[in-house]
Amino acid sequence: xxxxxxxxxxxxxxxxxCGSWRCRxxxxxxxxxxxxxxxxxxxxxxxxxxxxxxxxxxxxxxPRARAYLExxxxxxxxxxxxxxxxxxxxxxxxxxxxxxERESSRAHNxxxxxxxxxxxxxxxxxxGFTSYYDNITNVVVKLEPRSGAxxxxxxxxxxxxxxxxLGASDDAVSCSVMLEILHALSKSSEPLKHAVIFLFxxxxxxxxxASHGFITQHHWAKSVRAFVNLEAAGVGGKELVFQTGPxxxxxxxxxxxxxxxxxxxxxxxxxxxxxxxxxxxxxxxxRDFGNIPxxxxxxxxxxxxxxxxxxxxxxILTDSIQRAGDNILGVxxxxxxxxxxxxxxxxxxxxxxFFDIFGMFVLAYPxxxxxxxxxxxxxxxxxxxxxxxxxxxxxxxxxxKELAIAFGFTVLSWFAALLGILFVAIFISLIGRSxxxxxxxxxxxxxxxxxxxxxxxxxxxxxxxxxxxxxxEQFLAxxxxxxPLVFWSIxxxxxxxxxxxxAFVCAIWVAFPLLTxxxxxxxxxxxxxxxxxxxMYLLGMSIPHVYSLYLNWIIFEMFVPIMGRSGSEIPPxxxxxxxxxxxxxxxxxxxxxxxxxxRSTKTIIITLTTVSVIMFTLVCSGVFFxxxxxxxxxxxxxxxxxxxxxxxHSLDGHLEKSDSGIWINGLDxxxxxxxxxxxxxxxxSIRTKCDEDSPLCGLPWILPVDYLLRKNxxxxxxxxxxxxxxxxxxxxKKQMPQGSTKLTFEASGPSHMSLFLRxxxxxxxxxxxxxxxxxxxxxxxxxxxxxxxHGLLALxxxxxxxxxxxxxxxxxxxxxxxxxxYLFGDxxxxxxxxxxxxxxxxxxxxxxxxxxxxxxxx
Length: 858
Known about the structure:
alpha+beta, 21 helices, single chain, globular, 9-stranded mixed sheet
């Protein structure tokens, strides 16, 4: 093939001109740098854009909501069962509702009910477990027209908090927003068509118990046709719609129509529902147990301090509260006056693709329309590529061959970048320098991003230098435009066929490059790779680039903080490194062609490599400490400590062995490596050993997360003596007519307990009085896990299990362990636990409580 591109360049230079982009090797780097800085700035500005507080009495007032927030958090930590949660917060909510009722318009009627439900259910979350709750608290408020209403929309928040935290964002701010929405709606002189039920639930952190109690037992629940759930995965910022449905596309359109500042994306929904994020919200309960469609919203900014003592009211911007209030007030008012709410079952079918444009507005269309659109875009790409294949046979075969080879080089560059960067991430993890980017996120970009780009460019530079040495540059530019087009087209068609709504991202990466190609084709053909062509090309590609940056920013905002609480088994550097490589591949996919048009890539490869090597050296030398105690922007390390008594009983009831100590879990991959210099006794010599003969290793898990936290420490300490000790007994043992054995137990203790069960060989647990009656085994560790909590007052917990025994076993039928958790009050922390917590450095969040573990064999 004739080297037309280089010949044109020489002729232009000989004529004394330098219009060619290739003649000015430095100019394109400057333009490219300015391009990325401009896109990054645009994305940054879109996330900073909040709103000012409203002034009108019938509008949402963030200052009033802030006053509610500060008063709720001033009560202190609000664990389920504590007086702070069950009495003080409940009384405060009732007082505020009464005050709102006194000032409300005569067009409305406000009813209040305090519910104390008892119930049980199973949940296939964290491998699967069963939950039992007794006498927990819901404060339910109904706003309806004076004439009454048959149908209702539910708004849900929770006022309980994780132990040792104030829970300002999770979820006191949402309850404050709901109080202010109730105030604003009650002031209106226009009656609503339907009722609005405000559920202030008091047991969400105990794994969604209060919402289950409401939706399965409360008499108002039958009137609920849709719900809006207010949650948090961070502290302030914008609230993201991350779940809708199931189906019921009319709810998405309602949100789009009514929310003043919409922010949501179907991709967030598909990521969350994939199970990648180990979390659930009350949305799950209303969907699965109430068969009700809804909208799930959550604050996602600054997840580093979510569920820590730093989650305080002063860290939530008033403008963030205003934004959330405007949106939710608009949506609730829209739903409460909508004709569709009463007939929501008629609008159930179908899904919707939706995504916001920089938080300014949301685009939405039916999933079936999206499928047609995606296949149409794919067809256009096939048409474009087909014109090149439908040439004379020799040229067509040559094109297909070159396309396949170029695709091979592209895939090779991807694997080279991925494997190389993963090797770096593994090395950094092995030498104990993981999470160096946790406080300084730019470190991950300069460490992994620059290395990934250098690898990508290097592979293509070598291909250009050795394989494509005598090939026309413009032909190479064409072929390396077609390669990513083929990749994105295949991805688009495949994801659409699989019903993945997030395929719209692939559609953007096919449609806009094709359009850009159409616009720039004439310029490239007639004048070559001029600066005008380069600029036009970048402008055309700016939409997929900027939107991908926008989505990636959201993903990073959610996922990077999760790496600080993802457990001891998942190397976070591998995840972040792989993600950065994927982003680098995506963003550079249509820019690879310029490697083949450029005179030299030596400078950029050296620059990128130098930056990466310098950053690698700094990381390995420990310059970047993962955590921060900065008062304005803390990045704490999370640690759980439980002062523990363990007692193991034999089949005849005698005590076989016992011990006591402080059991310690670091919630991230670094474990205790950064703590040992401050507290020398916390080292690997006291690592906990798993007792294989005991369920869940014989350790006092409050939830079945043992598979995430296999590295933990057990520091010997004196035994504890809680004022409210556990009382556990076998009430009866009966042989059933069908040959099974029924064991009935009674337990009384603190507000939080866990029950572990492991049937012995030859025994099968086939029925019990919990959940739906069919025992749910944990799919990860094979044991049975029951989570129990109760409110302020509760009767002893009675339950029974029924086992079938096929073989006689001298070691008994089942091993059972009952675990207590003292999350508040005088029993919560021992003097030894207090003393140890005080020794932790200020860049940590050590959360501690007392536990007991009693194991029996029956």
